[in-house]
Amino acid sequence: MVAREGNMTRAAEKLNISQPSLSDSIAALEHNLKTKLFERLQRGMRLTAQGEQLYAYAKQVMELTDSFEKFFYEKEDEIEGEIKIITTPFVGSDWLVPHLKSFLKKHPHITAKVLLRSDNIELAEGDVAICRSLPHQPNFIQKPLFSTCIRLFASKEYLKEFGSPQTLADLDNHRLITYKGNYSSSYGSTNWILNVGRQEFSLPRKSYFEIDSLHGMINAALQGFGIVELPDHSPILRSGLIEVLPGIQGEKIDMYFIFPEIRKASKKINLLLKHLANKGN
Description:
Layout: H1 2-5, H2 8-15, H3 19-33, E1 38-41, E2 44-47, H4 49-73, E3 81-87, H5 89-106, E4 110-116, E5 128-132, E6 140-154, H6 156-162, E7 176-179, E8 209-211, H7 214-222, E9 227-231, H8 234-237, E10 242-244, E11 252-260, H9 267-276
Parallel strand pairs: 3-4, 3-5, 7-8, 7-9
Antiparallel strand pairs: 1-2, 5-11, 6-9, 6-10, 6-11
């Protein structure tokens, strides 16, 4: 938890123990291992190289232990109980929730809990993850669900006032909506709109409106703030936004249904996979 939070106080709060007790536990672990696991910084904690190695190993052990416990206590002949799904905010609220309605209606003894994570999806938190492929996870099954591409969109209001760009160079003279800062998000974007069509080593375009939320970007576009890059999920295509420069598309994003291999016989997981597999994006 200290490694995840990067801060002793926040970690102690989440673990519901005192900070001195947590500090003593870490000191004892470092003493027993005869190595330094954390660097103490002015504003937090950072793993050392040895700490990174131990964290990766401990994370894997915890995920396998959690998966085994769920498998051990699961009654495979009964279709009941909770299924916990981890996914990204947009996919969870706008794609998954509508598709879960008929699944839960068909299986009334199953309940669902959806955990939304913008980044750092921890597989041990749930039974299933719906996200981009996770590399270096040999103990997890990853089944493709759907693919989507990044495209450019704007509202009718904006295009009526400012005109529709005909070439990528025209984007230089338009108002652009971006995610706050350069980033690699759960849907794949790196503010591609600021760089597409620009010459190598040239400065990126300037953003007109920044916000750290995909839903916020969609709403800003609907309000006529400017042109935005978004994944071509069905909810976005039905939102009333108009595709700009339809011959141009950005990164293709493949979304996967991910679960522990040890639970491959789980009826709940397989029923959910079968239900979602042909829903499209």
